[in-house]
Amino acid sequence: MDKASLHDAHEAVTEVLGPPAILVNAAGGNDPKVTVTAERPIEAITIEDWRANFDMNVVGGVLLPSQEFGPAMCERGRGALSTSRARARASRCRASWPTRRARQRC
């Protein structure tokens, strides 16, 4: 996901449906190269694969969409950004992170 495609999508949505009032960032691409399994322990994950997955999920799935859609919501004085994430589980290693809600006041 890149800024130009997000900007184009924002313009298209606004033209057809009006200004967006909510953005749901549903991060959670499941890349097998960074998924911990019994056959693939966490120590087998390379930094390069981890960074690529982080960029896909966090930068492309949360940061860039929020930067594109959030300011217009603030300018209108209304709107909401919501971020969801997948819960990681594996038979050999179980990890979970608490859900956190962040709110930006405009």
What would you say this structure looks like, in words?
With 106 residues, the chain is mainly alpha-helical. It has a single domain (3-84), classed as Rossmann fold. The protein is 42% helix and 9% strand. The protein has a two-stranded parallel ribbon. It is elongated. The two termini are 26 Å apart. Residues 88-100 have low confidence and may be disordered.
Summarize the structure.
The protein is mainly alpha-helical. Helix content is 42%, strand content 9%.
Let me know the average pLDDT. 82
Helicity range of the residues? 40-55%
Q: State the helix count.
A: 2
Gross geometry: elongated
Which architecture per CATH? 3-Layer(aba) Sandwich
Q: CATH homologous superfamily, by name?
A: NAD(P)-binding Rossmann-like Domain
* CATH fold label: Rossmann fold
Order of helices and strands: HEHE
Query: Whole-number radius of gyration?
Result: 17 Å
Query: What structural class should be given to the helix and strand makeup?
Result: mainly alpha
How widely separated are the two ends? 26 Å
Strand content: 5-15%
Main sheet attributes: strand count, strand direction, barrel closure: 2 strands, parallel
Largest sheet, order of strands side by side?
1-2
Task: Detail the poorly predicted runs.
Answer: 88-100
Annotation, overall tally of beta strands: 2
**Total individual domains:** 1
CATH secondary-structure class: Alpha Beta
